[in-house]
């Protein structure tokens, strides 16, 4: 059972990291290249955030659960388990990263979206700068589940060597 759980954790952590990175690497550049006005850019970013907000925390929590279950199984079998737990902690750390690093930028983007066509002197270039800043932070955040997956992979495959 431990092998199936560990394999599931590796797959879900990899998928989560890749999906998150894709938002910054593919989706945001498409938005920046194709959206002609700042209000449309902020509206599109808000939809991207909405779907990411569904995927990210849920995927991280599920992956954390898998890693912790694998760690508990290994601990009960008196095998090394800390790397499995650390993999889970690294994955769920997207939540505090969001709170402590990204919330100010998220709030600014939501504020700009709420202004709609009343943006005043906020230009498309200004909007692109804020969305680009968000994309770089989001890309950094997407590395956290990847780091968890790498730690977990070393633990899983190192145990077989």
UniProtKB/TrEMBL annotation:
Keywords: Membrane, Monooxygenase, Oxidoreductase, Transmembrane, Transmembrane helix
Subcellular location: Membrane
InterPro entries linked: Anthrone_oxy (IPR013901)
Membrane topology according to the record: Multi-pass membrane protein
One GO cellular component, as annotated: membrane
Major location (coarse): membrane
Molecular function as annotated in GO: monooxygenase activity
Membrane-traversing stretches: 48-71, 83-103, 134-157
Origin: domain of life: Eukaryota
Similarity section: Belongs to the anthrone oxygenase family.
Protein name: Noranthrone monooxygenase
Organism: Stachybotrys elegans
């Amino acid at each position: 059972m431990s092998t199936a759980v560990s394999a599931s954790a590796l797959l879900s952590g990899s998928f989560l990291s890749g999906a998150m990175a894709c938002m910054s690497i593919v989706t945001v550049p498409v938005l920046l290249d194709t959206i002609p006005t700042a209000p449309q850019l902020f509206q599109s970013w808000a939809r991207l955030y909405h779907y990411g907000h569904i995927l990210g925390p849920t995927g991280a929590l599920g992956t954390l659960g898998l890693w912790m279950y694998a760690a508990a199984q290994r601990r009960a079998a008196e095998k090394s388990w800390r790397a499995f737990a650390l993999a889970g902690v690294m994955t769920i750390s997207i939540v505090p990263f969001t709170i402590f690093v990204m919330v100010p930028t998220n709030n600014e983007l939501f504020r700009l979206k709420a202004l709609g066509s009343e943006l005043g002197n906020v230009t498309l270039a200004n909007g692109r700068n804020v969305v680009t800043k968000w994309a770089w932070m989001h890309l950094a955040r997407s590395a956290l589940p990847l780091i968890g997956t790498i730690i977990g992979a070393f633990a899983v495959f190192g145990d077989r060597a």
